[in-house]
């Protein structure tokens, strides 16, 4: 087979996947960018090219800035907690403990539950006066509190739900990575007199860096695509305290029917994720391999 034939054969093998990627990823992104420079069609008036007017309106939109700020706080709170808890759970169930299989199942169960079901379960936990959390706090003599109705606690409540649901999913990847490590490493460290913490810090965690990088990428994406929990639990309230960016796009596009402005917001979301990806792959990827 000639070099040209190999090149043509390789591209033909990639063609189905490339076509699907272009159809469902690249074309929608390009179409959204083009739509963000147009106005929303109204009755008797079609869409018109407006340039950067939508972006000027976005810069003056206080709800957009509130949703972006909420999303950054949400990501900063859920990502490190989910990853740390997943690593802790994986290290725990990787050891030789009684009921290890049941414990793994218990940790992974929240992952397989539907998002809407999870939101409704936690909605009951947070219900004022007779919710589970209120029963616990009242047992200690604490006053009743509307957890989802207070600006000070509503976003934190959503963070707790996310960490509870995602930590078990990330745990699976850490557990698989831990089981691939050679037991001879631990034996050699024990012979040298290294403590468990020293072995984890100097050997285990560096070897887990590729897995951590993979989990981090998924955690960042998940932090900016939450809609289900917000719809069921808070609907962006109170007073936009839980208005996350993707939920705001959903409201603008489907509730207020302004697809042009929703496309503008979507481009900002893509830009945020793009910057995050550049930081992850440009800075962290070169530091994930243990040497």
* Radius of gyration, taken over Cα atoms and rounded to an integer in Å: 24 Å
User: Taking all residues together, what is the mean pLDDT?
Assistant: 89
Total of domains:
1
By CATH, the superfamily comes out as MetI-like
User: Uncertain segments of ≥5 residues (pLDDT<50)?
Assistant: none
Q: Into which percent range does the helicity of residues fall?
A: over 70%
Order of helices and strands: HHHHHHHHHHHHH
Q: Kindly report how far apart the N and C termini lie.
A: 39 Å
Put simply, the count of helices is 13
What is the CATH class?
Answer: Mainly Alpha
The 3D shape can be described as flat
* Strand coverage percent: under 5%
Question: At the third CATH level, what is the topology name?
Answer: MetI-like fold
How many β-strand stretches? 0
Main pleated sheet: none
Write a structural description.
With 291 residues, the chain is mainly α. It has a single domain, classed as MetI-like fold, CATH 1.10.3720.10.
Task: Identify the notable features of this structure and list them briefly.
single chain, 291 residues, MetI-like fold, 13 helices, 72% helix, flat
What layout of secondary structure does this protein have?
Blueprint: H1 3-35, H2 53-59, H3 62-94, H4 100-112, H5 115-125, H6 132-139, H7 154-179, H8 183-191, H9 196-207, H10 209-223, H11 228-233, H12 245-255, H13 259-284
Helix pairs in contact: 1-13, 3-4, 3-7, 3-10, 4-7, 7-10, 10-13, 12-13
How is this structure best summarized?
It contains 13 helices and no strands. It has 291 residues and is mainly alpha-helical.
